[in-house]
Design goal:
Two copies of one chain form a homodimer. Chain A is of the alpha/beta class. In chain A, the strands form four sheets. A seven-stranded mixed beta sheet of chain A has the order 2-10-9-8-5-3-4, with helices on both faces. Chain A starts with 7 loop residues before the first strand and ends with a helix. The interface between A and B is large, with 70 and 70 residues.
């Protein structure tokens, strides 16, 4: 690979972005929309930025078919900040919430709720099998204020194929790593949050979609910057928002709607990518997926090779061949190919071809 | 102005950035440092990003002459989040702090501390004269944990010419709008914070410089993302940081050191810009500065014209002539020229020439 070529990027996040989006940013970087300023230099109180954030919000609402009960907010601090804000805003004295533990991020969400002294119940966990599956037939407490799940588990490579029946309790979901990857019925959800650095844009903001009934629970006596109403009442501009990140999100959503053709089409492409990669792995005795088949993620494909030495060699040779980001998370080892929306079928095909070659040479 | 020209940008924040910095970002936007990825696509756990954040931190330490007691952190949420985090981290039960009220942002900082039930004292205020001056001869409580000031008041156009003598109580300062504009003795300060969207880069992060003695006060029982130690123990990478913003900050600091020639030289240029603009206003009977002379800001020059109609006309004609962002803050009206580090002497000269012409035609 020469130094002026772009690689196939399988990073888990920050991750690949659509090339046409990057090219648009590059092209208009010194002069945004004829303003004579860079997008990084315009006032967030200007018509230029209003158009950007309003279009981003509108596209989110259209893509996910949100009705007027839902508010789309952009809040700094990543999903980790939401682990703290959700119980702080939604659980008053005497309230309880259910949590399902499906991996590292769920575990952190649970800890942050508990450390505030909130009453929560872990109603199901897949920790018994190293988080390699999504629990089934869960009994949710009908009196819980919400039921928290992590829709896709970036580190363990599992994903909820269907969302659980909570008997009417609003779902609260961390969708950081699979938002906008497939259509789903949003009406089950009271709150959805997603750090943007996987399927939506660069790092630096978390999108929060919150429904009226949960928004109404926000107390007035918590700090201003930790209250959902601060953001819902100001179109996410109580103070200066991360303008560049929101602008990039807008461009990615435009690409999703206008170039890809919407969420249905995106889901088809993602299914095709997953079938190609998992299909190849399943017929190979060399690569072994770590997630149980019915819990496999279409976003993060985690796998092992026959030895750790071979895994090291695999990652190094892949990198040398222009296939980047294939090392597993530092907490679990192994290999991982993150194939979010912007990662093309072409990239996955290149990966599978490399895997075939590598297997041939090393088995 | 043709649509492909850049304007002279006097926005209060987000604000002008140095053109060479924008050009560098544009040039390497599709392929950062030969990585084959955009800076928005690289992992924050990569050597590429380590080099970026470590260089940014090193430059901050060198420019401000920080010794090893000081930690440089990047935290999301803007200065507004610090209004809440500072008392939450530094004030335990029985502790008190002093606040000086010099305008809108100080007022917000005071409110956020009070709303947490912390014991603070407003030891001085310039509210009696519409915040048009910086209070002098303040009596600070020697038992206070810290004394909070706002070093530059973006909206009212005032700035501390010299920092107050607190008798050893650590100063905590919101330097959002004048950080890196002039040299100062950092040893008086226990904590300095600055939203980056004025003198440092795009919006999306707040730089916090905290000294060991104040860092040691951070309690363990507050949420993870609100504890300073979470950031000091992880080089600001407990979770994914806003990579693009930190990268731009690094480039702006490099420009400050290598193109401008350091903080001393920057202060000279800023003084020259201020003398040109204030000097012109002082000999004109048409434009009237709103801040008292000894409290004038070298970053935000606030002024009025003989009537509101003339102010509207002034802003409109200036905009048409490629001079943007001259409208005063929506809360106070009038006019304001923000002339942060990246705004060149050439831009200020163009502004003064326009002001002369406008005065001639309209008086």
């Amino acid at each position: 690979m020469s130094s002026n070529q772009r690689i196939y990027n399988f990073n888990a996040g920050p991750a690949a972005l659509p090339l046409p989006v990057l090219e648009t940013i590059q092209k208009e970087f010194l002069n945004f929309a004829g303003s004579g300023m860079s997008i990084t230099e315009i006032s967030h109180r200007s018509k230029w930025f209003d158009d950007v954030i309003n279009d981003a919000v509108l596209r989110v609402k259209r893509i996910l078919k949100l009705d007027d009960r839902y508010h789309v907010l952009f809040i700094q601090g990543g999903a980790s900040m939401q682990f703290c804000m959700i119980p702080m805003n939604l659980l008053g004295s005497g309230d309880t919430a259910d949590y399902v533990n499906t991996g590292t991020w769920s575990t952190k969400a649970i800890k942050e709720a508990q450390s505030q002294g909130k009453t929560i119940t872990v109603v199901a966990s897949s920790e018994d099998k190293n988080f390699s599956y999504i629990p089934k037939s869960i009994n949710f407490d009908p009196k819980a204020v919400y039921a928290h799940i992590t829709s896709n588990n970036t580190i363990k490579g599992t994903q909820w194929a269907d969302f659980p029946d909570t008997g009417g309790v609003p779902l609260v979901a961390d969708m950081s790593s699979d938002i906008f990857s497939r259509p789903f019925d949003v009406n089950k959800f009271g709150l959805i949050y997603a750090g943007t650095q996987k399927n939506m844009g660069p790092a630096g903001v978390c999108m929060v979609i919150i429904r009226d009934d949960l928004l109404a629970r926000t107390p007035k006596d918590i700090p201003t910057m930790l209250r959902y109403t601060t953001f819902s009442e100001s179109n996410s501009m109580y103070n200066t928002p991360p303008c560049f990140t929101i602008y990039t999100i807008q461009l990615v959503l435009k690409w999703l709607e206008e170039t890809i053709g919407g969420l249905g089409k995106m889901a088809e492409i993602n299914r095709e990518k997953g079938e190609l990669l998992y299909g190849f792995m399943d017929q190979s005795g060399f690569y072994k997926g770590t997630a149980e088949k019915d819990s496999r993620s279409l976003m993060n494909v985690t796998f092992r090779l026959p030895s750790e030495d071979l895994e090291k060699k695999f990652v190094a040779e892949a990198t040398a061949n222009g296939l980047g980001g294939l090392k597993g998370h530092r907490s679990v080892g192994g290999c991982r190919a993150s194939i979010y929306n912007p990662t093309s079928l072409e990239a996955v095909t290149a990966l599978v071809n490399f895997m075939k070659e590598f297997e041939k040479k090393n088995s």
